[in-house]
């Protein structure tokens, strides 16, 4: 009896976790497309009013408009050869994040994207690029 309960509990828990990961992955789908196409304009549609951008540890906060121009400059200098998110997660408070691998013509970067709730929807709060 205990074993059956444990197996059922494990199965239900695994399904709930996978559904949460899929939901988080779906939130990042349009972001992935914008990055793959190196479209700062499309990416900016998902920016929170203030976005923290970090390039190899140099962090700065920008308005959404300023962040769009910073990302446009980054994409121009480091156009993507490939990009994909490799891990999705969320904090205890429910803040979703994703870790990706961005390969540009000048090398590879580990990319961290964190979203937050803004006006009933998820918006990008942080983007962090770290050269590998």
UniProtKB/TrEMBL annotation:
Pfam annotation, one family: DUF4783
InterPro entries linked to this entry: DUF4783
Keyword Signal tagged: yes
Signal peptide per UniProt: 1-23
Swiss-Prot/TrEMBL keywords: Signal
Alphabetical list of Gene3D superfamilies matching this protein: 3.10.450.50
Domain of life, source organism: Bacteria
Protein name: DUF4783 domain-containing protein
Species for this entry: Hymenobacter swuensis DY53
